[in-house]
Structure formats: C-alpha cells, structure tokens
Amino acid sequence: MYRFLLSRQWVILTLVALLLIPTMIRLGIWQMHRYEERSARNQLVADALSSKPVPVETLTSPGHTVTTKDRYHNVSAKGRFDTDDEVVVRRRTNSDDEVGYHVLTPFVLDDGKVLLVNRGWIPANGPSQTAFPEIPAPPRGEITVTGRLMPDETTAASGIKNLKGLPDRQVMLINSEQEARRLGAEVLGGYIAQTTPEPKGDVPELVGRPGNEDAALNYAYAIQWWLFSAAVPVGWVILVRRELRDRREAADQPSEEPAPAAV
What's the angle, vertex CA 14, arms to CA 10 and CA 16, rounded to 5? Predict the structure, then answer.
C-alpha cells in the first residue's frame, strides 16, 4: 500500500520537505544570531548612556574616528560657544517628525581646540529655505557642557547626500573634517549631542536619546522558523496517512458489475 510513495508526485513532495527542514533550521539559527547581535548592541548603547561624563579629549582628538564602542558615551568639555561660526544642519526632524534644522555650534576649549556641539532642533522659521533661521543664543562666557559623543556623519553611513551650493551657513552633514576646513582650526573628531546645560524655553529642542533595536522580534522569528521546520515532517506524515486511508477505502469499495446485455 505504500508503493504510492514512489510515484512522481510523492517523490517531489518528499524531496521538497527534506529541503525545507534544514533550510528553516538555518533561518532560525540566523535569526538567533541577529538577536544576539542586536542584544549586544543594545547593551553597549545602554552602558554608554548610563556612563559618567569624562573629559571629551580622553575619547577623541583632531582627526580621530569615534568608534562604536565610544558612541553615545557621556563626555564633558569646558570652554565657550562661538556663535559667529554657527551653522545649521538641513532637513532634520524632531520627536514629532517635523522638519527643521539642527543647530551646530563650535565650542572652543580652553586649549584652543574646537568641539562641535549639536545644540538641538529648531523649526524652519525663516522666510525661506535660503534664509538663516533665528536661533536662541547659548550661554555666554566660559561654561561646561556635557553631551553624548557621536561619530562624524557620512553619506555612506547616513544616506544623506552632501549637497553643494547650499545657502550660507547651512550644511547637510555634521562632519569634523569638513568643519575643520571651514573654520581653519583643530576640530575634535566627531561631535556631541548636548545634554546640559538645558536651553531656556526648551529651544533648541535637545536631541532625544536613541531607542533600542527590536531584538525580541528576531528571537520570535527564530522560534517561528524552528516550529515551521518541526511542522514539515508532521504535515508529511499526515498527508501520507490520509493518502493511505483514501486508497484503502477505494480498495474496499465493491466493484460495479456490468449491466446484462439486452436480448
């Protein structure tokens, strides 16, 4: 009764099932690796966000590339804001997805080096996109700022095109090498997203903390793929038993005798 398994239809069905099982297992393993990677990155970000501020020059210097390990680490710096060379970063959104600008202000340290400070988001309140927007002034004189250390923005990493021919004092990317050429100064690699002092009147709106990657989703996908792989042989057995039952029922049916010929 099991000879039907050698038919073309059942051979193909069996081969497909045998191929699906290891494929689904591999997909589950891949999703579990993704879960572990995302969980590790989430932990790295959480540790950086909860770190105590350290002097910024202990983690970066002119020409330095901020690494993933140091990203979001809390740093502090003592100096003064240079609003004369302040620029705005175009096409940035706030927590409500409103399009405006990020305010990028050079912060001159006591040793003369420059730290780029993203002071936060402001709306596009100018009469046109070519006009420089109104920006609330930062505190004057020598102060201490703290913020989250960030790597330089690039087109490759962000997908933002570094357009040329922009209006005066407007940029597309926050990039220390680009700003060093513009300012003619030693600029520390990367920049900071300011956390203190908080602006008066909540403007500029400070850049929010980064959210966690959804690692739990990858874990759920891994379990799902493994359940699918377990369901394949179960489904194959069910189909075989159903086919066997149908064949037995067909064999038990009495054959119809031919009608007698008319005289």
Answer: 115
Beta-carbon neighbour count of residue 29 at 10 Å? 13
Q: Which residues of 108-144 are buried (b: 16+ CB within 10 A; e: fewer)?
A: bbeeebbbbbbbbbbebeeeeeeeebebeebeeeeee
CA separation, residue 88 to residues 54, 132, 178 (Å): 27, 8, 14
DSSP notation for 46-106: HHHHTSPPEEGGGT--BTPPPPTTTTT-EEEEEEEE-GGG-EEEEEEE-TT--EEEEEEEE
With the C-alpha atoms ordered 71, 73, 78, 80, is the resulting torsion angle positive or negative? positive
Rounded to an integer, what is the distance from CA 178 to the centroid of its chain? 25
- Which token pair is 53? 């501020």
Q: Do the Cβ atoms of 83 and 134 come closer than 8 Å?
A: no
CB atoms within 10 A of CB 82: 16
243, two tokens? 């086919």
Please report which confidence band the pLDDT of residue 229 belongs to, taking 50, 70 and 90 as the band edges.
Answer: very high
Q: How far apart are CA 22 and CA 38, in angstroms?
A: 24
Whole-prediction pTM value? 0.78
Q: Say yes or no to pLDDT of 181 above 90.
A: yes
Residue 150's DSSP bridge partners are 191
Which secondary structure element, helix H or strand E, spans residue 155, and what is its range? helix 155-158
Q: Identify any residues that bridge with 120 across adjacent strands, giving them in sequence order.
A: 103
Please tell me the predicted confidence (pLDDT) of residue 258: 59
Joined together, the tokens standing for residue 248 give 């037995």
CA-to-CA separations, 100 to 85, 97, 123, 211, in angstroms, rounded: 19, 9, 4, 21
